[in-house]
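Weekly modeling sync, notes
Attendees: S.R. (lead), two postdocs, one rotation student

Agenda item 3: backlog of single-chain predictions. S.R. asked that every request posted to the team notebook include the full sequence so nobody has to chase files. The rotation student volunteered to paste the first one in as an example of the format we agreed on. Action items at the bottom.

Example entry:
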Amino acid sequence: MNANSELIEIKANKDILSEKLQKSQNLINTIQVEIKKIKSDILALEEQERKINEVIQRGKDEVNRGEIIITDHAWKRYFERILGYDLEEIRRKIIDNVLIQRKNILGSGVAIANKEGIMFNFINNKVTTISQK
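Predicted structure, as returned to the notebook:
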């Protein structure tokens, strides 16, 4: 083999290796980006896990202190089933036609008084607060 053909073969091999190196470098860059995303996802999951553990611990602390927590649903059922209140009737008394008309005119995010002067705060068509004027 002469020197000229040897140089041509070396250059061809060098080009092949340079191309392989570039592909490998691109693959490394892609993997590094993926690693960054995975680490970020892991951190987000760890934060969620931390928050859930805090909630669980608060619950355990309440149980350990012997506190009994009554949910809003349980209160509602107590008033209905034990005390005999008709909560739907109470709801109809609270939300009268005057209040509905005023709400439709004034919109959300405002305090609106019903005909008895009771103030109602609305957010997104939901009564969030009721108070005496």
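Discussion: group reviewed the output briefly. The radius of gyration is 35 Å.
Action items: rotation student to repeat for the remaining queue; S.R. to check formatting next week.
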